[in-house]
Design goal:
Blueprint lengths: L1 H32 L16 H17 L45 H15 L3 H9 L2 H5 L10 H24 L16 H11 L8 H12 L7 H9 L12 H7 L12 H9 L23 H6 L3 E4 L9 E3 L2 E4 L2 E3 L3 H14 L6 H12 L3 H9 L3 E3 L4 H11 L13 H37 L3 H32 L1
Parallel strand pairs: 1-3, 4-5
Antiparallel strand pairs: 2-3
Helix pairs in contact: 3-6, 4-6, 4-8, 6-8, 6-9, 13-14, 14-16, 15-16
């Protein structure tokens, strides 16, 4: 009887539960039909705003930029804003654009047809199709893009076309300069290659930091022309010959620097470009030099100016047959190699300095040299002295322009001068200068003390001597006044 009772009780609870369920569902249905919002056990996720979507897109771009590209390193930078002083022609190309930064500039469009002319000549001479060049560069497009600072807003096809066109133009310039443009099939009166002024302007544009093509791209294109895709030395050597500037006399690029440095233009080949090759060929310090930089805009005047050094007895002489940075100081003689300055010197120095300021892991030899010369040259008279002693040879308008050139180059330049290659020499010169100054002051003080002792012991040893000297001085003054009035009266009567 108890079991039957329990079953009836469970059945009753079951029926009550069903009834409650029907009641709840009916009420919910009534609310939904009246337009009321149905209450659920969770809150729906609101749609994302445009602001949140924009942030997620930027994060995705950051993730993509953070992915390293195999074999690629940032090496072609935007020109540092703090080095700009309103003279855009020193860092902005004036006749030809190379690479993406100035691609499409309306001022430079006239050179584009000459680039296509060079590309046509290359394909005709090598009996090749353009497709092999495009395909080869396409394979390393990502690596090439990663060499440039910032995002390059060009399509894949546009970027590859630009690399092939600009790269072949650069190689044709190098080969023409080395072999002769007539040997490459260009006429003797070529509208670009036969005009010296045009070639100098192109050469100047090609050493600008923002106007560079990665060296591995040039090597690929040059290898296709030679039928040797794996060659990696030809372009760097041609670039050194092409950019050999008439600035420093002597054996600079080939035998001298090459033997002293063991110069290898392929060092860190993934980041090198033509300006980098030129910079490396100018280095004269050993490979063990520390490249750690401690930036500082305050530069202590370690080297007195030329006038002060000469007054202190330091002799300035020309250092013959030496590299441009081979400055010596021995036995009170400062020896400096000859420096030739022309209208393109400022642009060359400025872009080399910009390269050193941008690369965090390279030395600052050019910057150190320019600051050293700036400290040495404080006036046009200093330039004139260096010019008369064949240390500086310039074709600018005046010596004042040379002094102003070094002054403007050193504005806003960051450099740890104590870590530079000239810091030891500058300290030696400065210590020698201080010793000479102290010796001169000590000698002058000794002279004055001896004169004072003579005056005191010989002429001021008793009151009558003092009275005699004062009387003689008064008599001398009166005689001078009398002579002055006599001359004045003579000229007054004559008039």
């Amino acid at each position: 009887m108890a079991a039957v009772h329990d079953k009836k009780e469970l059945l009753g609870w079951y029926l009550i539960t069903l009834k409650l369920r029907e009641t709840v569902e009916s009420r919910l249905l009534e609310k939904s039909t009246c337009g009321a919002e149905i209450i659920t056990d969770y809150e729906p996720r609101p749609p994302e705003s445009e602001w949140v979507i924009s942030i997620k897109e930027k994060l995705e771009q950051g993730r993509q930029d953070n992915v390293p590209v195999s074999g690629a390193k940032l090496s072609i930078y935007r020109f540092p804003h703090y080095l700009k002083d309103g003279h855009d022609e020193d860092w902005v190309p004036q006749i030809v654009s190379l690479g993406p930064y100035h691609h499409g500039d309306e001022r430079l469009r006239h050179m584009e047809r000459h680039k296509w002319r060079c590309l046509h000549r290359i394909l005709e001479r090598s009996h090749q199709e353009i497709g092999c060049y495009l395909d080869s560069v396409k394979k390393v497009e990502g690596r090439a893009r990663a060499c440039y600072e910032g995002t390059i807003s060009m399509s894949s096809d546009e970027f590859v076309e630009m690399m092939v066109l600009d790269g072949c133009f650069v190689i044709e310039l190098f080969r023409g300069f080395d072999e002769g443009f007539e040997e490459l099939g260009y006429p003797r009166d070529d509208p670009v290659f036969s005009i010296r002024r045009s070639m100098l302007e192109i050469q100047r544009d090609m050493i600008m930091l923002e106007n560079q093509i990665p060296l591995f791209i040039l090597d690929r294109l040059f290898g296709l022309q030679l039928g040797d895709p794996n060659q990696k030395r030809g372009v760097a050597k041609l670039a050194i010959q092409f950019f050999d500037p008439p600035m420093w006399k002597g054996k600079i690029f080939g035998e001298y620097v090459g033997k002293r440095l063991g110069f290898d233009p392929l060092f860190d080949h993934g980041r090198v470009h033509c300006l980098d090759v030129l910079w490396r060929s100018l280095q004269f310090l050993g490979p063990n030099q520390s490249t750690t930089k401690q930036w500082s805009k305050s530069r202590e005047q370690l080297t007195p100016c030329l006038t002060e050094l000469r007054e202190a007895g330091v002799k300035i002489r020309r250092n013959y047959f030496r590299c441009w940075g081979d400055i010596k100081f021995e036995d009170g003689i400062l020896r400096i190699p000859q420096l030739v300055i022309h209208e393109g010197t400022r642009s060359l120095f400025l872009n080399l300095i910009a390269l050193e300021q941008s690369h965090l892991d390279c030395s600052s030899n050019v910057t150190s040299f320019v600051i050293f010369m700036h400290n040495l040259i404080n006036s046009p008279e200093d330039v004139r002295y260096l010019r008369e002693h064949s240390i500086i040879d310039h074709c600018l308008g005046s010596d004042a322009e040379v002094a102003d050139l070094f002054k403007r180059l050193c504005q806003e330049v960051a450099l740890d001068f104590e870590g530079s290659f000239l810091s030891r020499l500058s300290n030696q010169v400065y210590r020698h200068y201080l010793c000479k100054e102290l010796s001169f002051r000590d000698a002058l003080a000794q002279k004055w003390n001896s004169w004072r002792a003579v005056l005191k012991n010989k002429y001021f040893d008793n009151p009558w001597s003092i009275i005699s000297i004062v009387a003689a001085f008064v008599l001398l003054v009166l005689t001078f006044i009398q002579a002055l009035y006599a001359v004045y009266g003579y000229y007054r009567v004559g008039s």
